[in-house]
Amino acid sequence: MTKSEYCKRILFLLLFMNNCIIINAQRPVAKDENSINLSGTWHFQTDVQDIGVSRQWYAKKLTGIIRLPGSMATNNLGDAVSINTPWTGDIVDSSWFFEPRYARYRNPGNIKVPFWLQPNKYYKGAAWYQKVVHIPPGWNKKHISLFLERCHWQTTVWIDTVKIGTQNALGTPHEYSIDSLLSPGVHYLTIRVDNRVNEVNVGVNSHSISDHTQTNWNGITGKIMLLSRPRLYIDDVQLFPDIEKKQVTAVISLKNLNTAAVNARLELTAFRGGWNAVPLTPLLQDIRVKGNGGDMVSVIYPMGDHPLLWDEFHPNLYAMQVTVAGNGASDKKAVTFGMRSFTSNDQQLLINGRPAFLRGTLECAVFPLTGYPPAAASYWRHIFAVCRSYGLNHIRFHSWCPPEIAFAEADSAGFYLQIECSSWANQGATIGDGNPLDQFIEDESRRIVKTYGNHPSFCMLAYGNEPAGKHMTGYLTRFVTSWKKRDPRRLYTTGAGWPIIPESDYNSTPDPRIQAWGAGLKSIINNEPPRTNYDWSAIIAKWKHPTISHEIGQWCVYPDFREIPQYTGILKAKNFEIFRQALEANGMKHLADSFLLASGKLQVLCYKADIEAALRTKNFGGFQLLGLGDFPGQGTALVGVVNAFWKDKGYISSKEYSRFCNAVVPLARFSKMVYLNNEALDVPVELANFNEKPLKGIIPLWSVKNAAGQLLFAGKFSQQTTIPVGNGFQLGVIRQQLASVLQPSKLTLTVSVAGYENSWTFYVYPAGNPAIAKDIFITQTFDSETVSQLNKGARVLLTLKKGALKKDKGGNIAVGFSSIFWNTAWTHGQPPHTLGILCNPRHPAFSYFPTDYYSDWQWWDAMSHSGAMILDSVQKGLTPIVRVIDDWVTARSLALLFECRVGKGRLLVSSIDLLSNAGQRPEARQLLYSLEKYMESDNFRPEATIEASKIRDLCRQ
Fold first, then answer.
1. What is d(CA 524, CA 538) in angstroms, rounded to the nearest whole number?
2. What pLDDT sits at residue 13?
């Protein structure tokens, strides 16, 4: 330091200390002699014009105040959200910016965006944080480092007026070595944090940085500490368990800041089950560490004759304490680890040599209270407990890496984690094309493995999500092969979704799922009559390593507007407010809860179909749901059975969900879900057993009950001596004549195996129905003859052909059986555009067509042969017999069936084609019969009167 620099430093320090009453009043107290906690009040200033570096803000007192850990938003700092807010993340549907229906939400003071959850404040750019630190005399000539956990994103650090350096890690702490600059006494620490996408573009939709989920926050949200270590210290410990040899190899990085080599003693002691447990035998080793640098030491530590293994059923943990003593001082480092092996054999994943099946969901960095990943153990403990209650054992962290505490809680809960290197290199970013991102991914992956690599829950690693780039395959092949050589503790793949390469330890691919992006109404669930006898064996047969299905499900449910008051943090559900107001404007606010429950039941049916198809696939690696919880970004994707707070929504419990999503699941292969009573059930039954051990001596049971709970049929299969761990194990075939089912019925098959149950609803109709007593005029066109019949007082059933509706009357609404996939905003309107039906099951129109208030398999035929009528185009406030639940964005009043009076007659309008190819459609025949029976009865008394021209105007001429 020159004389002028020294004088400048002293002058600034005197001026700064004179104005630090607030800071000094909250002088941090060290927890121990080796650390100083810097949490608390800091000075602060935003750098809107990006002038702080050139004007040397690190050499001046900042004028604002902020609390850390935290973000600007949690301190209510930043700009109000406006139409010009510079969001981070693609906006695929930009209609908010120009469509008249959103005009009032673009007005200052009433800004509401539908893209994602809306923060109270927003800031993108550089911000400066500053604090006085007091270095104790005992830290003299020691190794001192600054530890900053969860910085977002790039940090630059100055001690007094000296720049220390810059770091841009997203998934790991920023650590700065500042040995020579922190002599005992008072110093000022200045940190510049920049949350813009600068030279490294990880992809603006990456959940590590995007406003779609956790928000693009600015701040430091984890531990903020100064750490002191002796001049000979332990820099890193990596533990490599070997369960076959019952040992662990410890690779220890030692640093020696002394100029001379040091003779030292290394001691390793493992503790089983925690630090209070009885230790294993210590291992001592004398070593010599060279000066001005350090050494790597590898030590094999025996774990005894019967080490406890770690897995989802028994998450046994060990703690390893490493001590190095030399030159009159000692240093310790404690590491938690587990004795486990996560490998693969051909197409099967293996945990400790036993077949494993991943039942996973995504964690997309959804934190509605904070806008960033919480550092509280209780938060992560709750997430893993909820996931476990729904039968899951796996979480994929989509394009981001969680903080240390999440790994620790996953270790304790026995969860298998897929970690990604903070990137979704797509939609404007690419990987492998020589951009700075290529080096960032290499560096980020090394940082992640070094920081979290000892956690047994850290089982899988990918570069990130769904990459793009001309040279991505070559780059990602090198990524995989390099990591396989470096670190065998986990499995590696290219990216979540693609590309598939033979070098990967496992595939991540969207191919094996029942609905794909762009499939629309051509998917299995929308294009083929319902069944449960398909699987993905043909898809995975061409690959010689395990396959995990990528982002299955994506089935939507109607917004739960009762959720809005739960947003008490920095993010508000303004998107929900927009959707609620649209529903209210269309006169259906009172139906919000009904829409939620009915669409929720359909959503669960779709997820059950997806999950069971995966479990039926022999040697399948598993699935990753998108998701168990909602994704509030990308135009709002309400794909969860739990909300953004991990709370259920009221239409299915975790106990019910875990019947079809669990370690052990009975499975039935129905060739169809609708039968006539002159047919027989012929249903093979099998078992997926991914429990901790084989099942022995079981007797599988089955039963069929009607809607009233009465037992109709029951049976049992032969006793199974042993069912190994795996899937595709045949239990037997249910063969049952249905002639005794005389009435149209909803039936439920339940299979029970070793205390695990699973159920399926199916429907049985009479092979023939009695004749209708009264004359009913049935037509597919509203022509002059139809009007004449109505004017004579006839009872008329108008059953329109599919495609007959005018576009502005509902003809442009794509109706399918399934729920909406992801959402219509982000998928450019991918069909279907609806969320199933809502009806009153006690309505007399359904006396001979049993139904619940929501879509079940018997409605597949109707939804596949229909259009959705826009009721308000016929008459405002018209209440239908069968309502179709519209996309929450448009929130139109839609129907399949409504009744009215026209002239002297009574009319039932069906936008379901009940006549075409009726011989091959038992559901259509039965629904037609039920409607005719209703129309011939005295119950058929429509209240609304509608002009014939309104009915005629529904249809194309």
1. 15
2. 47
Single out the residue of 392, 398, 438 nearest to residue 419, CA to CA: 398
Strands 905-910 and 795-799, sheet pairing:
parallel
**Going by C-beta distance under 8 Å and a sequence separation of 6 or more, which residues neighbour residue 654?**
386, 389, 390, 391, 648
In sequence order, what DSSP letters do the residues of 285-322 get, joined into one string?
EEEEE-SSEEEEEEEEEE--SSPPBBSSS-B--EEEEE
What is the identity of the amino acid at 103? Answer: A
| 268, β-bridge pairs | 283, 322
Q: In b/e form, how buried is each residue of 479-500, taking b as 16+ CB within 10 angstroms?
A: bbeebeeebebbbbbbbbbbbb
pLDDT at 674: 98
Q: What is the pLDDT of residue 571?
A: 98
- 391-406 tens-digit pLDDT: 999 999 999 999 999 9
Q: CA–CA separation, 675 vs 152, rounded Å?
A: 58
Which residue has tokens 């396989």?
484
CA angle 202, 826, 806 (to 5 degrees): 165
Give whole-number Cα distances, 780 to 313, 799, 800, in Å: 60, 5, 5
Distance (Å, rounded) from C-alpha 515 to C-alpha 722?
35
Strand partners, 192: 128, 156
Q: Who contacts 624 (Cβ-Cβ below 8 Å, separation ≥6)?
A: 358, 360, 361, 362, 394, 396, 418, 496, 508, 548, 549, 550, 551, 552
Is residue 441 within 8 A of residue 464, CB to CB? The reply is: yes
Let me know: does 924 contact 864? Beta carbons within 8 Å. no
**108 to 82, 84, 111, 120, 165: CA distances (angstroms):** 7, 11, 6, 14, 41
DSSP lists the bridge partners of residue 519 as none
Instruction: Give the pLDDT confidence score for residue 290 in this predicted structure.
Output: 95
Report residues of the chain scoring pLDDT below 70: 1-32, 274-276
Q: CB within 8 A of 909, min separation 6: which ones? A: 798, 800, 869, 897, 898, 899, 900, 951, 954
Q: Tell me the C-alpha distance between 666 and 832, whole Å.
A: 30
Identify whether the C-beta of residue 712 lies closer than 8 Å to the C-beta of residue 802.
no
Interatomic CA distance for residues 364 and 469, integer angstroms = 23
Return d(Cα 531, Cα 525) in angstroms, integer.
9
Q: Provide the pLDDT for residue 278.
A: 79
Sheet holding 394-397, edge to edge: 491-493, 458-462, 416-420, 394-397, 358-363, 622-626, 547-553, 507-509
* DSSP 8-state code for residue 648: B
Those residues whose C-beta lies under 8 Å from the C-beta of residue 341, and which sit 6 or more positions away, are: 241, 243, 244, 350, 351, 352, 353
66 vs 86: CA distance, rounded Å: 23
- The SS3 call for residue 779 is strand
pLDDT in tens, 535-565: 999 999 999 999 999 999 999 999 999 999 9
Structure-block tokens of residue 503: 């070098």
What is the pLDDT, as a whole number, of residue 766?
98
Secondary-structure breakdown of the chain: helix, strand, coil percentages, each rounded to the nearest 5? 20, 35, 45
* Whether the Cβ atoms of residue 464 and residue 432 lie closer than 8 Å to each other: no
CA angle, 549 then 554 then 559, to 5°? 160
The DSSP code for 352 is T
Query: Rounded to an integer, what is the distance from CA 816 to the centroid of its chain?
Result: 24
* 842 phi and psi angles, rounded to 5 deg: -90, 0
